[in-house]
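=== RUN LOG ===
request id: a7f3
mode: sequence -> structure
chains: 1
length: 187
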Amino acid sequence: MKIHKLVFGPVLLASLLFSSFGAAQTNIFAEDPLIVAVYENRIEKVRELIVRQHPMSRADTEGRTAMIWGAIQGSYESLELILEVGAQTNIVDDLDNSALYYAASNGHDDVVELLLSYQASINRENRDGRTPLMAATEQGHDRIVARLIAAGADVGISDFTGRTALDLAREGRSRKVIQLLQQAGER
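=== RESULT ===
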């Protein structure tokens, strides 16, 4: 049996390594330049694209806009720039997840506060009936849970399985989050 030595360039090697992920893998770097600039929090590039009046609502193959990718990454400065020129906070991706949902889930407290200041829909449910409060609860982000409750998040909403944020908190065993949700439910 002969073993052949193969020499790959970095691009070919990367494409071979990642080709097994198929359509579920999103390559945002082959997508829209604003999505990439916001994702990488490259503020000067975002400014340049804004000046050139680049469309804010373009999305990748999963329906994620620059707003959503910025929320996923916590790109506060870039999000602030696109919000100042009118980017919409309540656009959702193909899973019906909003920027606020992703910011809450990923623990980006400053981005959550920014999105709320631009009237992001606090009780928006995704396809599973999950809200940003539930996303933050599930991940144990107590500061975000407190911020969302203070901003008026409905702690009584249940997802499609019938679980509320408090049920999710009990599953996650974060005492602080459980306490916050119990206090909010008593009001």
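=== NOTES ===
The domain at 26-121 is CATH 1.25.40.20 (Serine Threonine Protein Phosphatase 5, Tetratricopeptide repeat).
Residues 1-25 have pLDDT under 50 and may be disordered.
=== END ===
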